[in-house]
Amino acid sequence: MTGFDDRYQVTIVKYGTRTTTRRDVFLNYPLYNESDGPIGMDFFFWIVRSPRRTVVVDTGFSPEGGRARNRTQLAEVSELLGHFGVAPASSPTVVLTHAHYDHIGNVGLFPESQFVMAESELEFWSGRHARRAMFHHSVDDEGLARLQGLKSEGRLRLFEGTLEVAPGIEVIEVGGHTPGQCVVKVKTSDGTVLLASDAVHFYEEYDRDMLFMSVADLVAMYEGFDYIRELLDSGEIDHLVAGHDPDTLSRFKAASGEYGHLGATIGQLDA
Q1: CA distances from 7 to 55, 192, 269 (A)
Q2: Which residues pair with 239 in a beta bridge?
């Protein structure tokens, strides 16, 4: 039975955006025999909170990482964390779904936190293929060095397969987009949420079986789609939260306050 402290409120926080083309987003786009056109791409991190516990999922891109790639930063991640009730000094656990620049760019905001990541993810980015152009364009060397620093400090918990971070919060390794890409399953008062991160960038990507342009393992990414469909079809999850879709916020309850337009929530904090 799910107890009072096992149910959470999920806050989806948008901190950046860009406009690009469909050909730039979907792998081998000419195969679909469709005209090219513009597409938006938003950048998020996620906050999971109960009355007793806070878990942050990913940390967004750093200002330097965003500028280097011409991304538009809508607000400082540190300011958004504070607005949505997270004090980094309180050392919340931080789940890193994978090691791309827009997911680990601000780990330095959490100087005392414990971090969680799939072991296969760290192994890959520590190995000989990490510097190949098809992979390296999505990472920052400084960010990868910080991961090694976290490991040396004993603040990086590595796992294989699945890990219960806390009652009601499960991290699941699916691979595909990166070797250790993870999704996060969270129990809330409004049902179970799956934070897909980059296992599903866009709802269209998932609905139409259209792979994102950056893929480490084609078959694993398709299998990730199938796994998520099984979770939805079985009722094991009630809400799918895509990792970069501009439609994401509009699907859920709008947040309030100065940055309310940059946030949406699922579940009640005091439920």
Answers
A1: 12, 9, 8
A2: 193
Q: What pLDDT tens digit does each residue of the chain (271 aa) get?
A: 445 568 899 999 999 999 999 999 999 999 999 999 999 999 999 999 999 999 999 999 999 999 999 999 999 999 999 999 999 999 999 999 999 999 999 999 999 999 999 999 999 999 999 999 999 999 999 999 999 999 999 999 999 999 999 999 999 999 999 999 999 999 999 999 999 999 999 999 999 999 999 999 999 999 999 999 999 999 999 999 999 999 999 999 999 999 999 999 999 987 5
- Token look-up 């791309």 returns 100
Ranges of beta strands (E only) in 50-101 are 54-57, 72-73, 93-95
Pairing of strands 239-242, 191-197: parallel
Cα(243)–Cα(178) distance, rounded to whole angstroms?
A: 14
Residue 21's beta-bridge partner residues? 38
Instruction: Specify the CATH class of 4-266 in words.
Output: alpha beta
* Cα–Cα nearest to 105, from 66, 57, 56, 143: 143
Domain boundaries, the chain: 4-266
> Strand, helix or coil at 33?
coil
Q: 244 and 195 in contact (C-beta within 8 Å)?
A: no
